[in-house]
Structure formats: C-alpha cells, structure tokens
C-alpha cells in the first residue's frame, strides 16, 4: 500500500496522518519535511526517476510518502498518481497560507511551477493575466524572475513569501527592480499582481525592422491559420526577418516552443528588440538554414519566409524533420522561386496546395477613395502524412 501524506508546518499532524506514518514499513520524504515529522527516513526524494525505482523495489511493502501541502498540486502525488494506486491525505497548501497572509482572493489567479522547469516562454504565458502565483526553485528564484520581468517589459507588483510558517517567515512587497537586487531564502513563493493587462499585440508600424518588406497583416493571418500552431508544438520560423511571424505565433500558442532563424545581423537585433518589446520569449537562432537546424528539436510546423536561394534544400530538409502531421507553409513573392517551390513540394507532400493572395488598400484621393494594390504573395502549404 502506498500512502501520500501532505503536511504543513503551520498545522499539527492529524490523527489519521500520524497513524499512517506510524504503521508504515518505509518512509519517503524530502529533506525539509523530514524535520517536521521527526522520523527515520528510508529514502530521500531527489528526483522522480530514483523515487520511482525505490518504490518499485519495495512495492509489496507499506510505503508512506511525505509531501508538502496538497500533494496533487504540482506535487509528488500528481507525478505518481498515474503510476500507482495510492491513498492521498491532503493538507492546506503553502499557496493558501500565502494568500491568507495578505488577505488576497486568488480564485482567478494563474498557477505556474518553475520548480525544475525552464523559465523560457514565461512572458507570453502570463502577459494576459493580472494575478500569477509562481512556485520557484534555486535557479528560478525571485531575483531571477524579477530580472526576467524587466527584460520583457512586464509590469507587475511582486510579493515574495519566505519560509512560511517558520520562525523566520518574511513577506516582501516589491517592484521588479527592487527584487532583482535582493537575495531570498530557498523556501519561497512569488505572487505577481497587476492592475491592468500586460498583453500587447505587434502592429506593423511599431516593429523594429530593416525596411517595409515584412509579412503584411492579411498575409500573416492566413499564414498562421495554415500553420495551426498549438501549445506544446515546436515551430521553426526560417528567414524570420523582423520576427513578426514568430511573435504572432507566440501570442496564438503561448505554450509552444518557437525558434526564430535568421542570418542577417541587423535583422537578428530587430528580432531581439521586438521580442522584448512585445513580451515574446522566443529562441533566436543566428545562422543560415538549413545548415543551422540540426540541433533543433523536430518541428510540428515550419514557416519559410526567406531562403536566400536555398529554397529547394530548405524545403527538403524541413520535410525530413517534420513530425507526422506537421505543416510546412511558405510565402513567396517571385515567379522563379514559386516554380522551384511548387516542383519540390509536389514531390514531397501528398497533401499540398497553394494560392495567390492579393490585397488592395484604400487610399484617399481628393474627396473620395481609391484602391492601391499590395504586391501579391503566393502561399504554399503542405501537411506531412501522419
């Protein structure tokens, strides 16, 4: 039998929790919680893999796992519940204690765990939310989070809760600049609060760019629909230019992993500036496709906006790396490139089509209007067989 017991230093063990611990053959715990129960620990939790291995070796014994607060909320219980049949006894979470300290309702808050996870992509995940509660670790500590908020121009008030329920408990209310200069106890929770949304969508006129030759909004909308990028997808934006497509993709799918690939040094700088300005934490790759793509994870979607004469090679390489069901979309403005791309994609994709998109913009002339054409664009799209 496996029992998972949530404990909280603010509260005494319940009678039921005490009885389960006393009757256990083996006790598993993290180092911090071991001091609370004052019992011999048979295995200290370091990582999920070694914990699972220990449990499997002793699966016929009566095992008790000591966890913090609610074991099913970003805890060991959630990680093990799909593997084992367990009895779980929950306790008040540290988050509930923290919010009660400042009399803050949090039913509408977003919960994010950076414990053992990368901070990459946090900007686009939180920018639409006014309340965010973050579980931290040694690397993603309050100071690191504060510097990240400043880098991506995200305006939040920060609460840092240190050592909740211990004698050295402290609560700080700070702005990111103040928090970025401080050191904090390892045991902490961060709460971000803003009185307004931080969300901002890029406009053509607001972008840092080399010239006006960027993907126009009407073409961009069609392109993004065909790419159909979803959370957890890997997306390659090849020949990223100003980064407009990458940034737009991060808004559409904040949980996606985006690689913005560009070889032009000025364009790379613009991508960096635009991504920070518009709260878009994307991976910027300095290199020429397809030669710089080997170390990237296989994509679910690829957009080719620029190829520097290597259109055939880039299409073929992208197709080979695309995951089953993956989408490849190209924007092409010249007939020579169109002929080469159609020829290559028709050979590779059984599900392939393309269209020409023309846009006309209104322009005032005297007391009336006329239409002025924008250069037509050919949009090619193929889907790899599942």
UniProtKB/TrEMBL annotation:
Give the pathway listed in the UniProt entry for this protein: Cofactor biosynthesis; adenosylcobalamin biosynthesis
Q: Which keywords, in A-to-Z order, does the entry hold? A: Cobalamin biosynthesis, Methyltransferase, S-adenosyl-L-methionine, Transferase
Q: Please tell me whether the keyword S-adenosyl-L-methionine is annotated for this protein.
A: yes
Tell me where on the tree of life, at the top rank, the source sits.
Archaea
Its BP terms in the Gene Ontology are: cobalamin biosynthetic process; methylation
Q: Which InterPro entries match?
A: 4pyrrol_Mease (IPR000878), 4pyrrol_Methylase_sf (IPR035996), 4pyrrole_Mease_sub1 (IPR014777), 4pyrrole_Mease_sub2 (IPR014776), CbiE (IPR012818), Cbl_synth_CobL (IPR006365), Cbl_synth_MTase_CbiT (IPR014008), Cobalamin_biosynth_MTase (IPR050714)
Domain Tetrapyrrole methylase positions: 4-175
Q: Provide a Gene Ontology MF annotation, just one.
A: protein methyltransferase activity
This protein's name: Precorrin-6Y C5,15-methyltransferase (Decarboxylating)
Q: Which organism is it from?
A: Picrophilus torridus (strain ATCC 700027 / DSM 9790 / JCM 10055 / NBRC 100828 / KAW 2/3)
